[in-house]
Design goal:
By secondary structure, this protein is mainly α. It has one domain (5-253, 314-401). The protein is built from 17 helices and two strands. The chain has a two-stranded antiparallel ribbon.
């Protein structure tokens, strides 16, 4: 049975929507439109083929779907995290459909996000030179590369995803493959300029695993060279950012950021204790934190030995505590099942993008959170969707061959 013209046309539209998805996330413009349009098109195509009994779906495919449904209904505060669940669902559906339909073209698809990021970076650098503007604006995050992203760590996160895509799906042609390595180098330089300690930790964890799985002992040597090059860039950073990095290593317990985040962690733990099974919702943390500070500022000062900030934060700057506080033990059980199963699928199929993305987020999550953002959900759930695409199979070889 051959695909009709309309189905082929929809698949082409879906392909270009995924291209648009990567480009728009790279330029940080119009990302929501392509995230949701890709999800709708991809889900529609999969539903059509499943309805016509052309593909089969394993029962294990529904594990992340159950987790996303749980997040969306948010038992701790009904539907408070519906927006987060929607972004997770869109990224997951886009990843499943993109990898299922375009697996053979994924190396070319993977170029668009890093190319967009590098083009944006080069255009930004040229713009600052022509207009004689400072490369690091002295407003919100002085001394750190942000471009138009909301935070340097968000840019670092997208650059890290670009690196992982290029490493996991290298181009077959030699010229394009070496072009990809050049893009990896530029993206690595961008990550250094963000001076994001969470990003450093995440990409170090992901690349360490990549080096060991791909090159063994040689990979460890290459990783050490990269670390030495990263350390050599320290003197070229602004003095304030040098101090941030050095203090993290020399005296982490007295690091200003650590002392600032410790009260948030205490608040998140106390919030988890109030609702350990279903949590309180991720997006409800800011309101909870504000009320917690009002009630416990004196207690926190006496307990910690210093005056704590009165500002209420939208998340506790720790992914583990965010999940526990937001979704409780039940939600954490769901997401743990998703992670473990995605890792098993990656190892079984020897396609490691989801594995590296999860490892990145587990390390990144020690000091930061990306569950509540479109970039974080794309980073995590698009690769997880690509891994779960292996649980969808064509019913006969003729249909498979037509892909």
């Amino acid at each position: 049975m051959r695909l009709s013209f309309d189905q082929k046309k929809i698949e082409k539209i879906f392909y270009f929507s995924v291209v648009g998805l990567f480009i728009c996330f790279g330029f940080n413009f119009g990302a929501y439109f392509f995230l949701y349009s890709s999800a709708i098109l991809g889900t529609g195509l999969l539903a059509h083929h499943h309805y016509n009994k052309e593909i089969t779906i394993s029962k294990y495919f529904w594990i992340p779907v159950l987790f996303i449904f749980y997040v969306s209904i948010t038992p701790g505060e009904p539907f408070k995290d519906l927006r987060i669940g929607g972004m997770m669902a869109a990224a997951f559906a886009s990843g499943v459909a993109a990898y299922f339909f375009f697996k053979d073209r994924f190396s070319s698809l993977s170029f668009f996000l890093p190319m967009a990021l590098v083009a944006y970076f080069l255009a930004y650098g040229l713009w600052t030179l022509v207009l004689e503007q400072p490369f690091f604006p002295a407003d919100k995050y002085p001394g750190r590369l942000t471009l138009s992203f909301s935070h340097p760590n968000v840019l670092g996160e997208m650059a890290s995803l670009g690196i992982l895509l290029l490493l996991c799906f290298p181009a077959e042609h030699k010229i394009w493959r070496w072009t990809g390595y050049g893009l990896v180098a530029v993206l690595g330089f961008m990550i250094v300029l963000t001076v994001g300690r969470s990003t450093y930790l995440g990409i170090l964890a992901a690349l360490s695993l990549y080096s060991i799985l791909t090159y063994g002992r040689k990979g460890i040597a290459a990783l050490l060279v990269c670390l030495a090059l990263g350390a050599a860039s320290l003197p070229f950073m602004p003095e304030k950012e040098q101090q941030r990095l050095v203090s993290t290593i020399q005296d982490p317990l007295n690091d200003p950021n650590f002392k600032n985040r410790l009260p948030m962690w205490i608040a998140a733990i106390d919030g988890f204790k109030e609702s350990p099974l279903v949590g309180n919702s991720v997006r409800g943390f800011k309101r909870f934190h504000a009320a917690y500070i009002d009630r416990n500022s004196d207690v926190l000062r006496d307990r910690l030995g210093y005056e704590t900030e009165k500002k209420a934060y939208s998340h506790p700057h720790n992914a583990y505590l965010t999940a526990l506080h937001g979704w409780g033990l039940i939600g954490c059980g769901f997401i743990l099942a998703v992670f473990i199963h995605a890792i098993c699928l990656s190892l079984r199929n020897k396609e490691y993008l989801a594995l590296y993305a999860i490892v990145f987020m587990l390390a990144y999550g020690v000091f930061d959170v990306r569950f509540q953002s479109k970039t974080g959900d794309l980073f995590l759930f698009f690769p997880i969707g690509a891994a779960y695409a292996s649980l969808l199979t064509w019913r006969n070889n003729e249909l498979k061959a037509e892909r």
